[in-house]
Amino acid sequence: MVKGLIxxxxxxxxDKKISYIGSTFRCATVRYKEHQRWARYNLWNSSSxxxxxxxxxxxxxxxxxxxxxxxxxxxxxxxxxxxxKLEFYYIQNTDCIVxxxxxxxxxxxxxxxxxxxxxxxxxxxxxxxxxGLKINYYYLKKHMTTKKHALLLxxxxxx
Length: 159
What we know:
Layout (H helix, E strand, L loop, with lengths): L1 E11 L4 E8 L3 H14 L20 E10 L4 H17 L14 H18 L1 E3 L5 E3 L3 H4 L3 H10 L3
Antiparallel strand pairs: 1-2, 1-3, 4-5
């Protein structure tokens, strides 16, 4: 059985409280140390919670487990989606959040809003293969390994 965690890091300053909410399949303390290391060394993947580990604060943030989820199946992709949705539920219902991502992205929305522009751009990327076929640049490498390419190439060279 796989276990997922929703956790909250909270930093108290003189006049305010700021929090970061995250999710993980690993041990919460391991994830906490990872956030701490990323913030300290300003690593490439530092998250929005690095503000909580700023040296201007006297203490490190407090780690609190908000929810533990036991998943029946070992499907990491599906479990990750469920855990992420639960994380966003907590983000939306908590005050003083420093999370940069505050809503789930909708993968269909960008395409539906820009479908005409995307299709037009695809048509601009057409090239003429050495066999004479007009093909999209992105599929050219795969096309060159097909039987169709070989046959058209033979016909083009008069064999």
